[in-house]
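Review form for a predicted model. The reviewer records the input and the model, then writes brief findings.
Reviewer: anonymous (R2)
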Amino acid sequence: MQVIKIEDVKAQNVLSDLLKRSTNDYDEYMSRVQEIVNDVKQNRDSAIIKYTKLFDNVELTADTIKVSQEEITEAYSLVDTKLIEVIRKSIYNVELFHAKQKQNSWFDSNNKGVLLGQKVSAVASAGVYVPGGKAVYPSSVVMNIIPAKVAGVEKIIMTTPPDKITGKVNPLTLVAANECGVTEIYKVGGAQAIAALAFGTESVPKVDKIVGPGNIYVALAKKAVYGHVSIDSIAGPSEVLVIADENANPTYIAADLLSQAEHDEIASCILVTTSKELADKVLVEIDRFVKKLSRKDILEKSLENYGFILIANNLEDAIAISNDIAPEHLEIVTKDPFMVMTKIKNAGAIFLGEYSPEPLGDYMAGPNHVLPTNGTAKFFSPLSVDDFIKKSSIISYSREALQEIYQDIVTFAEAEQLTAHANSVRIRFEDELSK
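Model under review:
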């Protein structure tokens, strides 16, 4: 990890180095992704069968693209019952949290012939993409499906790449999806899966919204189909930032930083601390852990390229640099973490105190772990029920209520030279167009 004084952050381009991990810097992949998207749009099932053979070395047919009930039943026999119970506990907590996000339709009348309101409706269908490359992600299944279920989405379609050896979907992924109440599951991954969900094929239905993380091809495919369907966001690599003072436990901090660094080689972990002594201790603990952990190679590359310890002069400077970085995950391990939290403006999820490690949010706490990355927490929020709803404005005026203001509307419309607008209102109260 690189140790840098906070006043040298700009000089050493720390922020720009972090933002280079954005999918916006992968234009060389875009032409290939667009080619795949266009192929699937035109050739449908035959295209996704072709790309599944090419990229996953799995032979699909029109009859085997969709996961069967027999495959789901078999998956239950292959997953430990204790793990199934853990998944159910996670689902319960996630459902409980997201139920509090639900919005209701509302209507307001002034009793003078005016009724205004807002009608909240769920999107009719959602597509959930679940990665299946470097690891198995049942937590991603839970975090993407449950908000859609709570919102009231009637049809939830999941796509995930098949295993290159068995040709089947990982049983843990299937069990998690079934427990969440998914409607249908398809053995399709990559950009071809996103295109199938966006445009529909003979087997895969078109959806209204696509959510879920994936590799660079998935991210760019979501970017390519946006507008034909809605998407959640174009996620970048994972990241965690820890704000800590001299009271923090260096062992805990080192473990938490590595919990994100193990995701992939371009994941980022950052400690911002007011204590050089703590920084030195954290470095020792990181070295000790890395030697023992299973993803050592990934950890070392992540730490070398995107691991930073920033030494701040005071807590206010630490807070300021955190707000500039706008981390996906922010841990606050200080004497008074709640006070610090009130000054945080930009973060995907905030974890307070030494017994609220980031993996708590990944699996069991309840808030969503699909979070804005690469500084986008400045303007994006975590995945939520809101992502699966839409709102319609309701307007109802009586004749008397409209008559009271119609001349104002006419004046406004004519100022914009929209005479048909003016006429639409005027004709209800004046007999001739010329009046």
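Findings: The domain at 2-22+237-366 is CATH 3.40.50.1980 (Rossmann fold).
Further findings: The mean pLDDT is 93.
Recommendation: see findings above.
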